Amino acid sequence: EDQVTQSPEALRLQEGESSSLNCSYTVSGLRGLFWYRQDPGKGPEFLFTLYSAGEEKEKERLKATLTKKESFLHITAPKPEDSATYLCAVQLSRGSQGNLIFGKGTKLSVKP
Amino acid sequence: KAGVTQTPRYLIKTRGQQVTLSCSPISGHRSVSWYQQTPGQGLQFLFEYFSETQRNKGNFPGRFSGRQFSNSRSEMNVSTLELGDSALYLCASSSDRGLEQYFGPGTRLTVT
């Protein structure tokens, strides 16, 4: 069964304390892996797409990496405004464009 | 460019009633997907439409249905509402070129 697992479920950081979020996946074939940020009461906001192992993408304090079995979202020197739930999703190579399989998310809290 | 819009934003319905939710994709996007988000199950794929045709369907009962119009706007319908249908319903659109999906703010449905 195709599955996406995110850890930890929740993470509390002090402002400036860098850390990583993990997304492991077990799928029959990967077309792409996506990271989203979701604030309470809002829809997910697209962050990154990764296509192949070894690929890295960066945006401000965030850096996403991909291996054959997992992806990491590294947060460098986080600020309170980075507090949100971070979602990982995969698109299967056999699936259609619009079908994403999501993990349950990591809820990040950054305290000043 | 305007983002994905969803109406209404909030709905309260009674068990047994039916409901219709609307989604307008980003201009030029022909693929529209629907997801249900609950605290217990996270984001789960409902169905995807492309050029007025259902391209993929998730594992939901037949009470959940959808359609897409020639202008790519989409609607989803839930008949005979149950308490367990209370959730945030999210619509996402994507272009023909990219894999990433862009989400709307969602419709919060409460069934009493």
Could you characterize the architecture of this molecule?
The complex is a heterodimer of chains A (112) and B (112). Chain A is an all-beta fold. Chain A is 0% helix and 58% strand. Chain A is built from no helices and 11 strands. In chain A, a hairpin with a 3-residue loop joins strand 7 and strand 8 (70-75). The model of chain A has no long low-confidence stretch (mean pLDDT 94). Chain B has strands at 5-7, 10-13, 19-24, 31-38, 42-50, 53-57, 64-68, 74-78, 87-94, 102-103, 107-111. Chain B starts with a strand and ends with a strand. Chain B is built from no helices and 11 strands. Chain B is 0% helix and 54% strand. In chain B, the strands form 2 sheets. In chain B, strands 2, 4, 5, 6, 9, 10 and 11 form a 7-stranded mixed β-sheet that branches. In chain B, strands 1-3-8-7 form a 4-stranded antiparallel β-sheet, with no helix packed on it. The chains are: A mainly beta (112), B mainly beta (112). The interface between A and B is medium-sized, with 25 and 28 residues.
Instruction: Please write the string of helix (H) and strand (E) elements of chain B.
Output: EEEEEEEEEEE
Contiguous uncertain segments of 5+ residues of chain B? none
Helix content of chain A: under 10%
Low-confidence stretches of chain A: none
What is the chain-wise order of helices and strands of chain A? EEEEEEEEEEE
Shape designation of chain A: globular
Q: What does the radius of gyration of chain B come to? A: 13 Å
Overall shape of chain B: globular
Give a brief description:
By secondary structure, chain A is mostly beta strands.
Protein traits:
heterodimer, A: 112 residues, mainly beta, 5-stranded antiparallel beta sheet, B: 112 residues, 4-stranded antiparallel beta sheet, 11 strands, globular
Task: Give the helix/strand layout.
The complex is a heterodimer of chains A (112) and B (112).
Chain A: E1 3-7, E2 10-14, E3 19-26, E4 30-38, E5 45-50, E6 56-59, E7 62-66, E8 70-75, E9 84-92, E10 101-102, E11 106-111
Parallel strand pairs in A: 2-11
Antiparallel strand pairs in A: 1-3, 3-8, 4-5, 4-9, 6-7, 7-8, 9-10, 9-11
Chain B: E1 5-7, E2 10-13, E3 19-24, E4 31-38, E5 42-50, E6 53-57, E7 64-68, E8 74-78, E9 87-94, E10 102-103, E11 107-111
